[in-house]
Amino acid sequence: KDTDQIQDEIEKAQTTGVPADKFDYDDDLPGGGQFFCVETGKHFADAKSLADHKKSRYYKRRCKELKEEKYTQEAAEAAAGM
């Protein structure tokens, strides 16, 4: 998933009050879909894998990217001089 999609999911979860990382059990997903990282949009097989992932460089970079302002159409038009 791209950064703007994840930012939208996080905003939606905050406004509705429903956690973005909670899924019903699904045999097709790793770990039954119970170990999901919202920031990277990945499923993991167990809690240890998720905890190790949250210590990784990739996770920390993604969190830093998500803190930046979302790129909008208005910003694109302003950059183009419209």
What's the SSE blueprint?
Elements: H1 3-16, E1 36-37, E2 42-43, H2 47-53, H3 57-67, H4 73-80
Antiparallel strand pairs: 1-2
Structural notes for this entry:
49% of the residues lie in helices and 5% in strands. Strands 1-2 form a two-stranded antiparallel ribbon. The longest helix is centred in the first third of the chain and has 14 residues, at 3-16. Strand 1 (36-37) and strand 2 (42-43) form a beta hairpin. It contains four helices and two strands, in the order αββααα. The chain starts with a helix and ends with a helix. It has one domain (3-80): Double Stranded RNA Binding Domain (2-Layer Sandwich), CATH 3.30.160. The protein has helices at residues 3-16, 47-53, 57-67, 73-80, and strands at residues 36-37, 42-43. It is mainly alpha-helical and 82 residues long. It is elongated, with a radius of gyration of 15 Å.
pLDDT averaged over residues? 85
Whole-number tally of structural domains: 1
CATH topology: Double Stranded RNA Binding Domain
CATH architecture: 2-Layer Sandwich
Could you tell me the radius of gyration in angstroms?
Answer: 15 Å
The stretches of 5 or more residues where confidence is low (pLDDT under 50) are none
Q: Report the end-to-end length measured between terminal Cα atoms.
A: 29 Å
**Relative strand content:** under 5%
DSSP strand tally: 2
| Major sheet characteristics | 2 strands, antiparallel
How are helices and strands ordered from N to C?
HEEHHH
* Helix-strand category: mainly alpha
InterPro entries: C2H2-ZF_Maturation_Protein, Znf_C2H2_sf
GO molecular function: ribonucleoprotein complex binding; zinc ion binding
Subcellular location: Cytoplasm; Nucleus
Family: Belongs to the ZNF593/BUD20 C2H2-type zinc-finger protein family.
